[in-house]
Amino acid sequence: MQNKIIAKKDNAIRILGIDPGLQITGFGVIESDGRSSRYIHSGNIRANSLKSDVGMPQKLGLIFRKLTEVVDEYQPDEVAVEEVFISRNASSSLKLGHARGAAVCAAVQTHLPVSEYSARSVKQAIVGNGAANKEQIQHMVLRLLGLRGTLQADEADALAVALCHAHTSVLVGSQRASYSRNVA
Amino acid sequence: MQNKIIAKKDNAIRILGIDPGLQITGFGVIESDGRSSRYIHSGNIRANSLKSDVGMPQKLGLIFRKLTEVVDEYQPDEVAVEEVFISRNASSSLKLGHARGAAVCAAVQTHLPVSEYSARSVKQAIVGNGAANKEQIQHMVLRLLGLRGTLQADEADALAVALCHAHTSVLVGSQRASYSRNVA
To answer: pLDDT digit string (tens) for B115-174?
Structure first.
């Protein structure tokens, strides 16, 4: 979904949410004034669209560069990343770690504060139920941002983590740390 | 170990080797003309020296920025990264994945070719035995680079993967791909 609105409202915090994955990384930019949030931009980085013989470094390079472009263009104030569900599969965890490392570097290279939220925290914040399903998340993300239509799943998850951060930021207020980790 | 020699010899390839870790990341820069290699620089990035309440994003930021500085200052032509031993512990794999993601991003942001080598390939290339121990690696790294004294383990491993790449590059010659993955 593309909807470029560059000018930032006064007193609004612009948040970049990221749902990292080595195959598809979702990202979403919102603005929040503490009471309501508005949609700025979102999309997916499809490293799985690269040629099949492309290795991990190139995939990470794509994720890093695209997110760097998003940061440059949309100038978020803060970044929120979905915390990883640690699977029992060490190989999958490693791949996901690579993608998250690339995503976090795109944020921290410009010293943006990065917060992490577990999937459960995100669901609790958006739907009010830590065990909510994908459809419920999508429904509430569209509703909270006043959007119509549908979002790709990773894009919706990225917007959800940004919204979760917006809600949590309001609670934490001016005491917000440069780094926070929120696990329900 | 610090020994700055900036000027590059003609016909030499400058290689940055990296042994990534979320606590300590070793790096080493060598130059190879195909017959012999010389030491340029090496060191460790100690993310474990940061305050105990510092989170993963800051640690990755440190790794990313320090390696970016090394790339800027020593201008390697190619980068070699030790491939991860996938442990049965998914949590450890995830942390190591984060560190490798940050290390690889520091290289690919300037479009440097990145090659990966398994620990076994590195040991085979340096000691001639894929099951060599740390002391044997250290001994041969010092000998191949004409160094005296001792190297910290991660620094030695980083120089070892750079030397492994130098040896492999000679074999592959001009057919070297922009990305290669070498697993013994």
So the answer is: 999 999 999 999 999 899 989 999 999 999 999 999 999 999 999 999 999 988 755 543
CATH architecture label of A13-183:
2-Layer Sandwich (3.30)
Q: Which residue among A61, A107, A116 places its CB closest to the CB of B108?
A: A61
Both structure tokens of B76 = 């390697």
Rounded to the nearest 10 degrees, what angle do helices B90-108 and A90-108 cross at?
40
> What is the model's pLDDT at position B177?
39
**Closest to B42 measured CA to CA, from B22, B21, B16:** B16
Q: Break chain B into its structural domains and give their ranges.
A: 13-183
Write out the H or E segment, with its range, that includes residue B30: strand B24-32
Q: In sequence order, which residues have a C-beta less than 8 Å from that of residue B152 and are 6 or more positions away?
A: B26, B44
Read off the pLDDT of residues B99-129 as tens digits, 9 standing for 90 and up.
Answer: 999 999 999 988 899 999 999 999 999 999 9
Chain A residue with the nearest C-alpha to that of B180: A55
CA angle B45, B184, B22 (to 5 degrees): 20
Indicate if B19 belongs to the active site.
yes
**ipTM of model:** 0.81
Picking from B57, B88, B101, the nearest residue to A90 by CB comes out as B88
pLDDT in tens, B28-84: 999 998 789 999 999 999 998 888 778 889 999 999 999 999 999 999 999 999 987
Using the Cβ of A114 and the Cβ atoms of chain B, whether some distance falls under 8 Å is answered with yes
Out of B78, B83, B116, B154, the active site residue is B154
List the single residue in B with minimal CA-CA distance to A100. B98
CB B172 within 8 A of CB B164: no
Q: d(Cα B16, Cα A31) in Å, to the nearest integer?
A: 41
Give residue B30's pLDDT: 97
Distance from CA of A160 to the nearest CA of B (A): 20
